[in-house]
Amino acid sequence: MTSRETLKHHAGLVDRMATKLGVDLQQSAIDGDVLFDELTDAVLRCTDCPNPKHCQNFLVQSAQVDRAPEYCRNQELLGKLIP
Predict the structure, then answer these.
(1) 71 with 12: CB under 8 angstroms?
(2) DSSP annotation string for 18-59
(3) Do residues 8 and 65 touch, judged by C-beta distance below 8 A?
(4) What is the mean pLDDT of residues 41-47?
(5) Average model confidence (pLDDT) across the chain
(6) Is 6 exposed, middle or buried, given 0-12, 13-18 or 19+ CB atoms closer than 10 A?
(7) First to last CA, the chain
(8) Which of 49, 47, 30, 40 minimizes the C-alpha distance to 77?
(9) What three-state secondary structure class fits 70?
């Protein structure tokens, strides 16, 4: 995977994890709850994850959750955005 593809993939994982938590990242940015730089950092943290396949498997489960898994490198940030 090229670095651009990797970034797009992990941006998707961050967005899907937020959605699973009931967080609309775009609306959170518009409302000022999260800065664009924080979202960029979240994607970069995600690219450092040693097991993104585990995350992908977690995200295909149908149930909404109330917190990101322990292994998620963005658990703290996403937790602050949960409505």
Answers:
(1) no
(2) HHHTT--HHHHHHTTSS-HHHHHHHHHHHHT-S-HHHHHHHH
(3) no
(4) 97
(5) 94
(6) middle
(7) 34
(8) 40
(9) coil
Asked whether the beta carbons of 25 and 18 are under 8 A apart, the reply is yes
| The residue to which tokens 């999260």 are assigned | 34
Instruction: Encode burial over 22-34: b for 16+ CB neighbours within 10 A, e otherwise.
Output: ebebeebeeeeeb
Which tokens in the block code for residue 30? 């518009």
pLDDT at 62 > cutoff 80: no
Tokens for 38?
A: 């924080």
Q: Which two tokens stand for residue 26?
A: 């775009």
Q: What average pLDDT does range 49-78 have in this prediction?
A: 92
Tokens 């149908």 belong to which residue?
62
Q: How confident is the model at residue 57 (pLDDT cuts 50, 70, 90)?
A: very high
Look up the pTM and report it: 0.93
